[in-house]
Amino acid sequence: MFKPLDPLLHSQLRLAVMSLLIGLEEAEFTFLREKTESTAGNLSVQLDKLEKAGYISIEKSFKGKRPLTTCKITTEGVKAFEAYVENLKNYIS
């Protein structure tokens, strides 16, 4: 029996963000934007959805006089990502 894939993680950009964050302690917004090749606006919307789901935490601060947004994957996010990968493997095999 196949378990459904998490629709929140099934989005290409959100999955890319989670894939990056799973291997990092934290990542700055600019790093995520460059790696995913997304627009700032689209990335911002997708990060907000992941944060509302409890999959990531977002911290806003300043680096000198410039705003700095840092993202971290949460324990719940790690569990959701690992479950997504396992479910995907079931579909493949």
Automatic annotation (TrEMBL):
Residues 13-92 form the Winged helix DNA-binding domain. InterPro entries: WH-like_DNA-bd_sf, WH_DNA-bd_dom, WH_DNA-bd_sf. This is Transcriptional regulator. The lineage of its organism: Bacteria, Pseudomonadati, Bacteroidota, Cytophagia, Cytophagales.
